[in-house]
Amino acid sequence: MMAAYALCGVAALLLLLPIAIVLGRSSHSSAVVYGASLIVALVLGIFALLTLFEHSGRVSSVSLPFGLPWLGAHFRIDALSAFFLVVVNLGGAAASLFALGYGQHEHAPQRVLPFYPVYLAAMNLVVLADDAFSFLVAWEFMSLTSWALVIAHHRDPENLRAGLVYLLMASFGTLALLLAFGLLASAGGDYTFEAMRATHLGPGLAALVLILVLIGTGSKAGLVPLHAWLPLAHPAAPSHVSALMSGVMTKLAVYAFVRIVFDLLGSPAWWWSLIVLALGGVTAVMGVLYALMQHDLKRLLAYHTVENIGIIFIGLGLALAFQAHGMPNAAALGLTAALLHVFNHSVFKSLLFFGSGAILSATGERDMEKLGGLIHRMPHTAVLVLIGCMAISALPPLNGFVSEWLTLQAILISPQLPSWGLKLMIPAVGATLALSAALAAACFVKVFGVSFLGRPRSPQAANAHEVERSSVVAMGVLAALCFLAGILPGLFIDALAPVTQALVNDSMPHQSSIAWLSIVPIAESRSSYNGLLVFAFILSSGMLAAYAIHRLASDKWRKGPAWDCGFPNADPVTQYTASSFAQPIRRVFGSVVFQAREIGEMPLPGSMAPAHLTVRLRDPIWDACYAPVAGIVSFLSERLNVLQFLTIRRYLSLVFALLVLLLLALAAWP
Amino acid sequence: MIRDLAFQFAQMLLVLGLSPLLTGLVRKVKARLLRRKGPPLLQPYRDLVRLLRKEVVLAESSSWLFRVIPYVVFAGTWVAAALVPTFRSGLLFSWTADLIAIIALLGSARFFLALAGMDVGTSFGGIGSSREVMIASLAEPAMLMIVFTLALIAGSTQLSAMAAFMNSPEVGLRVSLGLGMIALVMVAIAENARIPVDNPATHLELTMVHEAMVLEYSGRHLALIELSSYLKLLLYVSLIACLFAPWGITTANAEPAQLAIAVVAYIGKLAAGGVLLALFETSIAKMRVFRVPQFLGAALMLALLATLLRFVSRSF
Question: Cβ–Cβ of B126/A580 closer than 8 Å?
Fold first, then answer.
């Protein structure tokens, strides 16, 4: 029954497609489409939340006579899909609310509006699908509609290139998933998930499925080295769509991974987790290092998605390792950490993309080098983005810290694992996790410090204005959620209990019954954390200090010129920029990873010419993985180009030669 | 319950009251080692009082965040310092934040301080912030790896449980413990902006990290920032003392006499830490900024090695 209700919601979203086309360029079209999407997404989200809380463990399914004639279309809601439905529709509702204001600035709304509700519907369907065919159709719809949204601003050649790379990578990923489902269906050829759950593959085939799934979902999620499209495509789309792509669509790739590996594939081998952990660790560190080198705000955020996907996959890898060694309790902890980070990241990444959209609509700039001082002109956006920056930097008492803390706690149980490979791998992964958290904090000091603080670096930044009310409300709701999940993490962990129960047959101890609402992953003597009290302590001691000082000492202040060691310079170009802020880190890490080189050109003494500093960075992954493929393709196409200009006689002889060859092959066939 | 609450507040006041004294001691010992007379031990208190009474001068381009940050930094550091066992373990609120959360709290304080450096929009503030986050990006992972090592030895990330374990005969001499201690001392030096990483008493702005970041602060704001850095020094000395020299720390139900001994032992440990720090600082030269990553990289590698040893074997 519940699955049928959810499908009604999806149908309502699909119905918005013709409405958006009919309304076309009329002035109400964006309000109608986004308003309706907001309502449908809210209803679906609340409905999914109720399913998760009320009907834990109950499964509802429905099959419709669409699709392949012998298969039909199967849809199903269990705890896992209910959780991801919440993530999808929370992101969808927030994006629609944000777009109510933001969408008015769109100069070509008819390129965005028809695809937007279909994109939301496709993401819902991916989660609902219960057979490989419907899953892949929904997955492809999700890819294609988001591709259409990426090239919405198609006059920019960079966006077109992003669209091309995205399309190629998405097709490649779907191909891998298609093959994986083919192997899962095995000889019986039954493509329902139920049949796949019942069949057990041999160890070799199961490992092959794992590799294919890692390629298929990793290319959507942005696992290094399959991330190349993500920092191109996510920033190219309108900002509310960027938020959906980064905050929600990458999470659906995580959903697909969890669904196939934890649910359909059967019991894992221990070395699977080695691959997942290694990929997760590399992704986390590379993502944040790439992000630090960027000064395009949206591209920087997209690279941070790569980093957070790495953190999620580290949690999943730990869960796999524990499950393979029969430690369901610890597996539940790892899985809860990963899924909680899925939720947290979808919230704060959407918030930050909305913030970048607000900046974009207020100043027309994505380049941080041209921003600055926005805290004076956009006070509400500034506070909300600051909360997002704190959350993504994993600072207590916000939500990003909780999920990273849980991941670290899962790492701390792992010495009990018997296999040596894992014993050597997990400390290294722990170090990469710690490194990426510290670098993320550095990166978001840069983001907030350069774009919101300081003095404006361009007239656009100096004349910025606060964005529409609805956009601020959308960011406010997400910031409040960051805060709520940070100080009351127990409630969110408990909501995940039915999910882990279904997947690894165990769940973390019930948290909301613990005194003072602390969270205790294993036992109180081992570790505990209480966001609420930490927040209360910081608040009360800060207030106490402020009160005491203002009351007993001095509360006088006056404004004056900046001190700056006695040489204040009125020119804003003397400020630190995004590139100069990242220079020490570029020198420490970038010289190894990106072969960063700084070439300084000083004019001769007496010359008035300006000095130049050029920085060269190489992308090691593009150079190693993508450039050779592109080289081979262009080499082959150049060689094969001659085939276009042959005479008819030559073509005929080629056809004849091929025919002979095929006949010979047929004759030689045993 | 009331008794426990009283102890928690006593500790909060104790760390707040003692922290300027520790900094005063380090300054005095350093001056004496350089054959100078040095400022009196109580000079930091006088500095604080003088700053608190002064009027604040804000830069014209500063925002409201600039005025809030000193309180945030102070509150975060104070809460973190109050959660480290000093003379008595099993404090009432010790379970609110384990060692990882304490490190993260200090990380929050640093995050805001680095933002303060960017707020006015001057070049010195920016240089300080960017170098501070560079140092932190290596010091924080090293610190977390040290926490891992200690947590794996003690079987807990709760500081009270760790201190109790370190006090018990089960600990013994371990290679990983030694590596962890060296790494922790290195990280503590970097985190507190001491020589050789940073010079708290420098007068050349280009070489400063922490001081450049807070260059625009004045009056009560500067007093709070100074007090936070005193607290942070005290926190790290207490942390090293409670983990590697946990002698004398009493448990929840101790006699008054034991408590008195514990407080005296704690003050003795602080004094010893301060004198050792001063000795170390006078015997070494400050390094260039881009030598710091090597210094901290060594700490990170030591800590990682220690963690690896703990993963591989129970007996190291």
Answer: yes
